[in-house]
Design goal:
mainly alpha; about 65% helix; 2 domains; about 110 residues; elongated; 4 helices
Length: about 110
Amino acid sequence: MTRQEKEAFKKSIEEQIEALSRELALIEKALYPEKGEGPSDKVAHLNFKLDQSIQIQRHREATKRLNRLKEAYLRIDRPDYGLCRECEEPIPIERLKLMPESLYCVDCMNELGL
């Protein structure tokens, strides 16, 4: 992978980290409404609780991805960035564009059951 490609990935990762951080802030606001902004009756409360459980799952998944992106950002300058941890072959650029935090190529990921 060229230095220029790594710089492009670095910029993309930075943008994704910013976007996920904003999304997490919105999710947290939905999870914990200001006093007086919560549901006003029993039906609304049940709907709020259902929505809250969905938001909790979204928050978990976004937090996991944010952590993976931050780790990828720290690894990007290392010579092994973009190499599959299993077969040590280059991970296709198109895969890294979609998921710059990828540690495995698709074949190894499927073989490992990830």
